[in-house]
Every structure is written in C-alpha cells, then in structure tokens.
Amino acid sequence: MGRFVKNPELTQGSAVEIPNVTTTQRPSGRNGQIIFNTTTSTYQVYNGSQWYNVSEASREKSITVDRFQGDGSTTVFGDNSGGTLGSTDNTSAVLSVIPDAATDMVIFVGGIYQAPGTNYTYSGGRITFGSIPPANDGTSSGHVITIIHNLQKLGE
Fold this sequence. Notes:
Layout: E1 20-21, E2 34-37, E3 42-46, E4 51-56, E5 64-69, E6 76-77, E7 83-84, E8 106-109, E9 112-114, E10 120-123, E11 126-129, E12 144-149
Parallel strand pairs: 1-2
Antiparallel strand pairs: 2-3, 3-4, 5-7, 5-12, 6-11, 8-9, 8-12, 10-11
C-alpha cells in the first residue's frame, strides 16, 4: 500500500491517491488500510477484522427535517398521529423517513432538545413524548416539533 503514497509531504494543490480495487482485488487487509472499492463505489478501511465502508461515493447523503405542531393534548406523533405544521387536524403527522431507532434522529420542541428515552420514546414510525408538547400559538411557532432524520446515514 505504501507505493501509492509517494510523497511524505503534501503541498498546496497536491493529493493522495487512494488505491482503486474491486471487491475481489482487495488485499487481505492490515489495520488502517484505505481503499476505494470500485465494485461498490465506496471508500473502505480495514478495521482489524474486516473492510468497513467509510463513505459511499455512489449517492449523496441528505438530512431530512419534519415539522409538527403540538395541540396541548397529543403525545404521539407520526404514523398519522399528531398534526403537521399548519394543519387543523390531528391525524396528518407522518414521518417522511422511518428511522430504525430513536438515536437516528434529533428532536426539538420549541427549539429545546429532547433526549431519547428521557423525553420521548420511538417505535415503528411513532414518537411518544413523556409530557404533552404545548399547543402552537400560530404566530411565533414557539412550540414547533422539529425532527431531523438520516443522521445515521452520514457515517455510512
């Protein structure tokens, strides 16, 4: 692998060339080796026991944001429970992305971070708050529920 990094010092405008190999051409691996797998279009690093995807060059990662509003009585949002921002009904809240776990999203109520397991639980597309999010007053959006998804994808 050392033959690919010829200059021990990088200067402005220079780059390190990462070896491009197919899955079948991958070396057996030594801890810390880096390759670009042309079969899967991923950068991979050997972690001591297997090749691990560091990033995926074949598609862009994006973060998704959903915004709901409290009504002063609803504790469950998502899966057609709770209201979306600006809605008049209480059955329109659907998560645009269904996370695998509560740790795959970040939630704020009125700009205040909500801790998973402490302030809410998550299961099957439904977020259940331990206490009722306040009703949105319609003018300041002070109690808007903001859910940021796809955080787990940033490290893939």
